[in-house]
Structures
1.
Amino acid sequence: EWVRMVAERHPEARIALVSSSLSEARSVMVEGESGILACSPPDMPPVFEPSLRRIRFANGAQVQLFSATDPESLRGPQHSHAWCDEIGKWPLSAERATRSWNNLLMGLRVMSRPQVVVTTTPRTVPLVRRLLNQENSEATVITRGTTYENAGNLPRRFFDAIEEEFSGTQLARQEICGDFLDDIEG
């Protein structure tokens, strides 16, 4: 919804969607139940051009899909905004997650107030730690939420199952409660 809001308010917006893979960017961020297409009004849907990895809005705003597995693809393109999903699972090999993030930041040079929204489970990986360390800066705002705060949108059976299976575990603290765990067992 944030991406759609930015696109609708700013015809000149150039928005990057970055996920751990192109298939996840498409299946979750674009075509998923909470993706851009599902959040768009049915009478004014944006045009998704899968072969170009692009979404075009009627007013001229554009969205481009990227994969954190290919940090070099973020070198060169310029953006005004970005949505980065699940950075906690971006690839760590060859520092791809960090390189993707750095290249994205270098390209945020369109419009006067570039912004990035990051949605992720707070896994103990270098990039998540780096962002959490910026919490007290004026340029970074961190919000937290638990799966329980989204209970109105999820089936009761789901909560019963996760409670039975994971209650009291570190996995539940991280994945369900959204805690950043520095104290990993073992």
2.
Amino acid sequence: MTSQATPRRTPGDARERILVAAELLFAKRGVDKTSTRDITTEAGVNVASVNYYFRSKEALTEEIFMRLAERATVLRLADLSKSMDAAKQDKRSLRLEDLVDCFIRPYFEPGFHGALLARFILQHRLHPSEMTQRVFVQHLDPFAMEFIGALCLTDKRVTRVEWLWRYSLMTG
């Protein structure tokens, strides 16, 4: 006779459960409308766990933004590489449409919480903070430079400086 009991949760996975719960709740309700108690209840941990693993709700929020930005960057770079490889194989120029698809995909990918990523980016645009700046410097800015380089390959008549400001307008 086999037991169908719920698997025991180990203390080591409490941190990950908090991250998963926070991301889910932030995506549903927003950061400001999600309490630490909401997160810990959803994660099945005690309230002190957030402070133990993250020091504060703000540090937890930064980690969620960092994880979303990292996942978006990995996805975008993979798509960018595929688009560039396809263009080389077909001996054609890189298509702007492929790059736009690559850029917007994380916002629409099922289960990705693209709207939450967009809210974090908008928060940075409207009210930049040290926290949002760290995420941009580590993940989003390096991708932007790669992406702008790829944009330059789509139309050689457009200068890199023009692509920079076009990118800024597109993302602003």
3.
Amino acid sequence: KYVVLGHSERRQYFGETDAIINAKIKKAIAAGITPIFCIGETKDERLGGILEPVLEIQLKGGLKDLTPEEVSNLVIAYEPVWAIGTGRTATPQAAQHVHAALRACLTEADAEAAAKTPLLYGGSVKPDNAHELFSQPDIDGGLIGGAALKPEQFVDIINAANQE
């Protein structure tokens, strides 16, 4: 029913470009599969002050030539590369800032689609940070990695999500 596309490891190890990811998103949609479209910046990009341009390029490249209806029927996951599997996570405020910028970028193309498109955070979500992350206005949920493999932790994350 869902497929994760654009994950940083696919970009890094398999050389997947925004154009390749865009083609995969279109194929998934045509097959009736909901894409979970991942975007994220490296630590150097964040520290270099190019976080938002990097994410905007990834977002626009992955969504190129999609209709507003197609965009509103997919899921976008912000996964800062520097946080994946490291145990480090963006602060809730930093994650909200990025999600708000992504929502604004989507709104430029189509406000109605932007409002309907779920934005997930996926960067070392754990039971102790899930509630605060999910309580941010533009974070609609989480794309959970390693914590999903630990039933007790995953249940705690689900409970945090259900409080929102």
